[in-house]
Amino acid sequence: MAQSKPLLMPWLKANIHSGRYPGVQWTNAEQTEFCIPWKHALRQDSSDADVLIFKAWAEVSGNGRAQGDPSVWKRNFRSALRAKGFKMVSDQKNDPANPHKIYRWPEEPASGAKSSSGSQEQDDCNTFNNFIAQESKVVPFFEDEDLYNPQDIQMPECPASQDILQECLQGLNIGPEAEGTTGFQPPTEQRRLQNHVVIGAHPLPGQQQHPVMFELAAREAGLPEQPAGPAGGAGYGDGQHAEQFLQTVNQTRDGAHFKTEFRVSVYYRGTKVSEQLIPNEAGVRLVYRPDLNGTALDHESGLSLVSLPTPEGILDRTQVTLTQRILDNLGNGLDVGMSEGVIYGQRRGEVKAYWSLTKFDNSRRPQEISKMNPEPLYQAKDFIRGILDFINGMGSPPFALFFCLGEKWPDPENKPWEKKLIMVEVVLTSLELLKNMAVEFGASSLQSVDLQMSLEEMMELY
User: Fold this and answer.
1) What is the pLDDT of residue 233?
2) What parts of the chain have a pLDDT lower than 70?
């Protein structure tokens, strides 16, 4: 008869106590936190001893042969810890002298002993861990979690009575939980606005009833494509750069109405998989409709439907499964619209969405987009204020918004955007044009009293 698989928690505790594996030890007197050596296989000082604990768990659990790939052993071990509720409290895997991670032991359940389903629960979680081991094999050169890390998603412990993969995917922030934004409170003026707005079919104050669809090229619709003057300022006298910049600003607006196109780029774990230019001033709705070729106009909302691509072609099968799970639950998707120079966002599907003005946001404060009301995200007057700051010697303003679907962003653990399963960049092309012009011309060439006064007047319109 086949030998039964051991439960992870008693097996791990016994091996920490035994001191059998170098570096595997308790780090506090209460024995609630422990250290695991975590050395990358490509380091010159790596050896077989660095993976002994991972190999041992692979042997006793059956999730990897003794002669298998050490990267799979390590990945399975990490996934098993995550599934049982262990929390990583310190990640020092890049420490040159002592690469390691420290984990906290999960708290004991209040009810005491587990039910008789405990052994089945472990087998089910092992099944999921084995799924990760078998399905996430990619280019063997990359050994550690830097290529694919299941910890990027929050995988709760797996109850045996429910579908295992579904439960382990709950951390993707898919589901009809209580709504509301977390981590971000817009300014008072924006909070006042968001109680009165609806994107699309019901026009916002100053919004046209029907969206403007550009039939011809941008320049034929009145939007300049690039600075008309030569690069580097050749041929310009004093004030001419400022005058040209102001002319371009005026071409991007019609009174309080702001004119722009949207360029939508989709990234799956840092790799760009699609890019589309959307000539609709009203905005876009991000959906998942594999049968949609290009874009289509949603006549009810006035937004352009932009479908995210299927994850076909990705070698990592676990990444494919998790990405597809998010896509299948997008439903009515995510709206990104504009009115009176204010960019709004609203979630309409079951997948939670988060946003930032930069993909390098290290604030660690996730900014969730509301499902209850359209939420102001960025304003043209903030951009204009940023241009004025740039002229006065400060940094240039942002011209794009970044959205993360199904995972918190900015990441609470400051993980880079390339780790996220689905990121979407929405560029406002008019703002991009103006920002690039300002940088190309240089701050000193834009120091004009007329330009500054005109920009300040524009800020009062929005």
Assistant:
1) 41
2) 1-5, 42, 63-68, 108-238, 255-256, 461-462
Q: What is the pLDDT of residue 65?
A: 55
Predicted pLDDT of residue 441? 85
Task: Please tell me the predicted confidence (pLDDT) of residue 111.
Answer: 46
Give this prediction's pTM. Answer: 0.56
Residue 356's pLDDT is 96
3-state secondary structure the chain: CCCCCCCHHHHHHHHHHHCCCCCCEECCCCCCEEEEECCCCCCCCCCHHHHHHHHHHHHHHCCCCCCCCHHHHHHHHHHHHHHCCCEEEEEECCCCCCCEEEEECCCCCCCCCCCCCHHHHHHHHHHHHHHHHHHCCCCCCCCCCCCCCHHHCECCCCCCCCCHHHHHCCECCECCCCCCCCCCCCCHHHHHHCCCCCCCCCCCCCCCCCCCECCCCHHHHCCCCCCCCCHHHCCCCCCHHHHHHHHHHHHCEECCEECCCEEEEEEECCEEEEEEEECECCEEEEECCCCCCCEEECCCCCCEEEECCCCCCCCCHHHHHHHHHHHHCCCCCEEEEEECCEEEEEECCCECEEEECCCCCCCCCCCECCCCCCEEEEEHHHHHHHHHHHHCCCCCCCCEEEEEECCCCCCCCCCCHHHCCCEEEEEEHHHHHHHHHHHHHCCHHHCCHHHHHHHHHHHHHC
